[in-house]
Structures are given as C-alpha cells and as structure tokens.
From TrEMBL:
Signal peptide, first to last residue: 1-19
Entry-linked SUPFAM superfamilies: L,D-transpeptidase catalytic domain-like (SSF141523)
Domain L,D-TPase catalytic: 79-219
Protein name, per record: L,D-transpeptidase
Keyword Membrane in annotation: no
Residue ranges the record marks as coiled coil: none
Superkingdom of origin: Bacteria
CDD domains assigned to the protein according to its UniProt record, in alphabetical order: YkuD_like
Family: Belongs to the YkuD family.
Lineage: Bacteria, Pseudomonadati, Pseudomonadota, Alphaproteobacteria, Hyphomicrobiales
C-alpha cells in the first residue's frame, strides 16, 4: 500500500462558498451509461440520532454529483469502495456490473493521496481530533487535539465517519466522512480526506460492513 503526502488534515478546511454548477450528467471510463437511477429527491431534511440535518439545495449541485446507480465495469468485488479522485467520484461496487456513485470533495494539491486500505470501523456522529500538525498551523483548533470536538452539525466529520486502516492493521489517519459544506462537493477543497454530503455518507455508512473485506482503493 502506498500513500502520498499522508498527513491527517481532515475536515476543518476554510469555509468554501461556490456558485452552483450547471446540471448535466456525463459517462466516464468504466461506465456503459451515465445513469440507471438517480436519487436527487433524497437530500431533504433528516432527523438523525437527535440531530436535525438541514436539507441540501441539491439543485445547486451539478447533477453528476447526485447519488446514482451506474453501470460500472470493474474487477473489484462487490462491497469494494473505489475513489476516483480526478473525477470527484466514490463508487460502492454492487453485484452485476453496477455501482452506487457518490460525488465527493477531495484533498487540495499537496495533500492528495492514493493507495489501498480497508474500513476497520465506522462511527455515527463522530468526535473530531485534529492532528498536532494542524494545531501547529491553526492555534484555534489546538484545544481539540486531546479533548476532541464533540459531534454536531458543525463538526468537520459530519454525520458519519469511516476509518481507513492499512494492511498491517494500522490507522492511516484518513477518513471517508460527511461534511456540512455541500458546496465543496466536486472540488479539491478538503485538507486531505474524502468528504461526502451528509445525506450520502449516511447512505454509504449503511452499506459498509467494517473488516478487511471492506476494501478501499483510492485512484489518482
């Protein structure tokens, strides 16, 4: 397994304000057609474990980044997660040549990474612990290194987090996680980890069974 520039700098990137993208859907290598089913209607308000997630103004997010089922040709087994960093997509491989495709936000230049890992564990409404490297640059987050930022609507990890470990069983310090910053989806706006809209990470969370069979492949 190989990670490039592997620093845990998840989540607390500066707030991003972006204009809405035009709505269009395109095919990519590995896809026979763009869309078999699209779930644009599933981004409304959500009551989840006592938290009231606001609805996402999904019409302002390019249609290609809406959750959808696509035809996806791959040798990876069902249950594998494939992250296509350049095109800003995460695929959850299904049987029969299909995949659930989610739009993602990826790491900024210099913090991008690639390699293979597996989902060792997952957490609903996680606590966020920034690394000491981030605290050295951002004194305003230093107090969260040890005590952590508790779960909530402003937590950089959002509603769910999936924790990536390497083949030796060591925490890579990289996460697949939610984000309250829906406008950052489709951009290189995060500081390293892979972010999804909160409604999408909740959907992905339900599909993933942690363990070494929950393989993650990140492509550059």
């Amino acid at each position: 397994m190989r990670f490039r520039n592997a620093l845990l700098l998840c989540g607390l990137a500066a707030a991003v304000t972006l204009a809405g993208c035009s709505s269009s859907s395109t095919s990519l290598p590995g896809e026979k057609v763009a869309t078999n089913a699209i779930f644009t209607s599933e981004y409304g308000p959500v009551e989840d474990n006592g938290y009231a997630l606001p609805g996402i103004p999904i019409s302002k997010v390019n249609t290609r980044f809406h959750r959808q089922i696509v035809d996806y040709a791959t040798r990876e087994k069902p249950g594998t997660i494939v992250v296509n960093t350049p095109n800003r997509f995460l695929y959850y491989v299904l049987p029969g040549g299909k995949a659930v495709r989610y739009g993602i936000g990826v790491g900024k230049a210099g913090f991008a990474w690639q390699g293979e890992a597996y989902i060792a564990w997952k957490q609903e409404w996680p606590t966020w612990h920034p690394p000491e490297e981030m605290a050295a640059r951002r004194p305003d987050v230093a107090r969260y290194v040890k005590e952590g930022m508790g779960p909530g609507l402003k937590n950089p990890l959002g509603a769910r987090a999936l924790y990536l470990f390497n083949e030796k069983g060591q925490d890579t310090l990289f996460r697949l996680h939610g984000t309250p910053e829906w406008a950052s989806i489709g951009t290189a706006a995060s500081s390293g980890c892979i972010r999804l809209m909160n409604q999408d990470i909740i959907d992905l969370y339900k599909r993933v069974r942690p363990g070494k069979g929950a393989r993650v492949v990140v492509q550059q």
